[in-house]
Amino acid sequence: MQDKIMLGENIYWVGKIDDRDVPFHRLTLTKGTTYNSYLLKTGLPTVIDTVDISFGREFVENLKELIPLEDIKYIVINHTEPDHSGGLGSLAAKAKNAIIVCTEPAVEELKEMYKLHNREFLVVKDGDRLDIGGKNLRFIETPYLHTEETMITYCEEDKILFPCDIFSTHVANYEYFNDLAKEDIIEDFKVYYKLIMHPHRKYVQDMINKIKDIEIDIIAPSHGYILRSNVKEFINMYDVMSRNTVKDKKAVIIYSTMTGNTKKVGNIIKDNLEMNSIAVEVIDVNKASGEEALRAVKEADGVFFGTSTRYADMIGGLEDLLKELKNIDLKDKIGGVFGSYGWSGEAIEVVQDYLRETDIKLLNTADIIKSTGMTDVMFPIRIRFSPKGDALKQIERASVYTAELLLNGM
Ligand SMILES: Cc1cc2nc3c(=O)[nH]c(=O)nc-3n(C[C@H](O)[C@H](O)[C@H](O)COP(=O)(O)O)c2cc1C
Ligand SMILES: [Fe+2]
Ligand SMILES: [Fe+2]
Fold it and tell me: For the ranges 1-10, 89-98, 188-197, 324-333, which has the lowest average pLDDT?
């Protein structure tokens, strides 16, 4: 095992540095990442979060060098995603006396994922405290940062915040602490925020309100650098970035599908728009009423229309909606067309014909090349059968382009 990395008295970093190209939320983390786990070797020894599921056994072997595993009294799980809870299965099997500490919504997920139906859980709520023998932990619920069950753990004596994914960076670093970093980490810190936290920015503000009166000397997140210098500045960056909602823009994705392929395309567009700060509504035109679809179009700044092709034509109720559009004012809106098809995809072109009859600003490859020189942003988004491989990249590029256009009017 590497040298002992310590954050305070009896507080050890026991994580894993992952310097591969790490696949993550359909992206690749080219700088790798770390999974930070912490051991508080107190009277009632406590582990806070674990590592990615692929390193569970290695994690437990390393931990064994610092403490007999049966001595561990508590395992705190701040967030259930397997890049942090992934070592819980291996650890709980060896740390037979440990009680698992988490929020109410996390219990079921952990029981199911790691077959822990017979284990003792301690469910904690916002503000609860836990004496771990010489130190006291306090728990702060932070729902939707970035999933429902998340919480922050705070060590009162050492003034260390363990916020799991919050305040993280995706960088495989061997310096551990931000004051020792060989490069400026601010850009990585902001990129991480934008990808993971910004779509939930309302909750970022809630979280900041909860921690604003707490004394914090160190922020020990679950990815990347442990922040022990300029701590306030990092919190301030989250505050500023999450307040910046002046340019709130909305998109609606309206689709019609036979077997779900076009719906998949729509959902990928949605994810990408949301990652880029656009609020998104998705409507299956065959399930919603005509009025509902029309209302959504009127309220949106950007509208995506999707259909697959059946016998050279579009399907379902989309055409009824398209016929209505001539009569409404769309001149300040951006429109894009997408669809899954098998061999010819005529429906996508028919939808475009309808939109050309309106005053919507219809996105198309030719105009994008002419105005930007970019050749990899393709509209309409034509996807053969189920979206995979290069098609995912194509959908992403088109979505990111649209998001930028909506926010900044490129
Ligand atoms: C009855 C039927 C007719 C189809 N006709 C066409 C067609 O004329 N042109 C084409 O490109 N694809 C055609 N396809 C292929 C579909 O467009 C393709 O399977 C698409 O992925 C379905 O997407 P969806 O799941 O969103 O409905 C047809 C498929 C079916 C089942
Ligand atoms: Fe996560
Ligand atoms: Fe994570």
Answer: 1-10
